[in-house]
Design goal:
The chain is mostly helical and 431 residues long. It has helices at 2-13, 20-31, 34-47, 55-76, 82-88, 91-123, 129-144, 149-180, 192-206, 210-217, 222-249, 262-270, 273-305, 312-332, 337-349, 352-360, 366-386, 389-414. The chain has a single domain (2-339), classed as Sodium/glucose cotransporter (Up-down Bundle).
Length: 431
């Protein structure tokens, strides 16, 4: 049994021996996903070059991750980030946090699948979206299932190098186009408050992202985890800025009902054929490892909290079940990419207080952790249903998130004499 447990642990964490280059590559490719690429580039189509302010979202969000939790997650050194909530608070809250994060990941996975289908629809317009999505999911599953995270990281290293080449080419190509063309600037500007709100929310969601935590667990050392995340913050910001600039450059030349199709349309119609093919190859590699990593992480959450899924074979079947479920959600629920991305971030952001207090607080505060999470989910979902996207994001960042932290600290103020609960040693053995 212990041998099986070790094999499964390696399946999810690549033996926890991943070096700086491999970790940087897999972190960059984890964040460089088709969903965010399409969702954010669509804002370049709608708001022009004012959308470049969104570069702050990734630069500051990932920098915040590096500074606050990168080393601490590696020191915790588990299989799933959800184990921390069980360790720091209790088993029931650990399961509750696991459910919240699992639902969020299911939504993200479906969103990622939908986004790659949007791109492929531009290449295969005659085929049904459901069929394109099914084939894409099947290929992603087959090429990554054998060795788990090790397979994903190997593909990520190749994708990382190809992505650097591709985005350098795209940056140069569209810069030259921009210089030689009189571009009419769009009058509607993306409010800076929207970018600022997303940046704040990103700081509180990335630190909890189970797919990042799993990659950090795979690092050789806490120092490798820290520096890899810093480099990731810079590279990811540059990649997304290039994508936004591309759609902003051609915004006046396109007439699209759905802005999500902007980037794929530009790449298909404005690039040389060879470059376009290269783009779709890299895009599919990006999608493959992003989605497969998410499926792998979702399975690791169940493994960490279950006594029944303990062999590599059973975990592969678990990943297959998750892939099928993600496909169904993608086909029947996802419509507008950025909108659904925001929705599924709600349960992640709502756990922000319980995580940061869990790492840095010294006293027991289970009540604060529970109340802050529930308040965060209820208030954010209410705001999502009532307001338009930009207003919702602003209120979520500057009203809901401060409220989450206020509610979390209230039990400590009301009962100041709770016993200390040391968290100096965070190592935990896989469950």
């Amino acid at each position: 049994m212990s041998h099986n447990k070790s094999q499964v642990t390696d399946y999810y964490t690549a033996g926890k021996k991943v070096g700086f280059f491999a970790l940087t590559a897999t972190l960059v490719m984890t964040e460089l996903n088709t969903s965010t690429l399409i969702g954010f580039s669509s804002l370049g189509y709608v708001y022009g070059f004012s959308a470049i302010s969104l570069g702050l979202v990734f630069l500051l969000g990932l920098f915040f991750y590096a500074v606050t939790v990168a080393k601490k997650w590696k020191e915790f050194d588990a299989i799933s980030v959800t184990q921390f909530f069980q360790y720091r608070y209790n088993k029931s809250f650990g399961i509750f946090a696991a459910i919240c994060l699992w639902i969020a990941m299911l939504g993200f996975g479906a969103n990622f699948i939908h986004s790659i289908a949007v791109c492929l629809e531009a290449v295969f317009p005659a085929y049904p979206k459901a069929l394109i999505t099914l084939i894409a999911c099947a290929v992603m599953f087959v090429i990554t299932i054998n060795s788990g995270l090790k397979s994903i990281i190997q593909i990520d290293k190749v994708s990382f190098i190809l992505s650097i080449i591709l985005f350098v080419f795209l940056g140069i190509h569209f810069y030259e186009y921009h210089q030689s063309t009189n571009i009419v600037h769009i009058q509607d500007k993306l409010p800076f408050s929207f970018a600022l709100s997303l940046t704040m929310l990103t700081c509180f969601t990335y630190i909890l992202s189970p797919w990042y935590g799993q990659k950090i667990f795979s690092a050789k050392t806490p120092k490798v985890a820290f520096y890899a995340m810093l480099v990731t913050a810079i590279l990811v910001s540059l990649f997304y800025l290039i994508a936004i600039a591309i759609t902003a450059s051609f915004a006046q030349q396109l007439s699209l009902k759905n802005p999500d199709f902007a980037l794929a349309t530009i790449i298909t119609t404005k690039l040389p054929f060879v470059a376009g093919v290269g783009f779709y190859i890299v895009l599919f590699l990006i999608a493959t490892t992003t989605i497969a990593a998410l499926w792998n992480t979702m399975a690791s959450v169940i493994f960490a909290h279950s006594s029944h899924v303990k062999t590599v074979r059973s975990n592969k079947l678990l990943v297959l079940s998750i892939a099928i479920l993600s496909y169904l959600v993608a086909v029947f629920f996802i419509d507008h990419i950025l909108d659904k991305m925001l929705l599924f971030n709600i349960p992640i952001a709502s756990l922000a207080f319980s995580l940061l207090y869990g790492f840095y607080g010294k006293r027991k505060n289970l009540v604060g952790a529970v109340l802050s999470t529930i308040v965060g989910i209820v208030v954010a979902v209410t705001l999502y249903m009532v307001f338009d996207q930009q207003t919702f994001v602003f209120y979520w960042a500057f009203i809901c998130m401060p409220l989450v932290f206020i509610v979390g600290f209230l039990p400590l103020i009301i009962k100041p004499n709770n016993r200390n609960h040391s968290v100096d040693k965070l190592n935990v053995q896989p469950l």
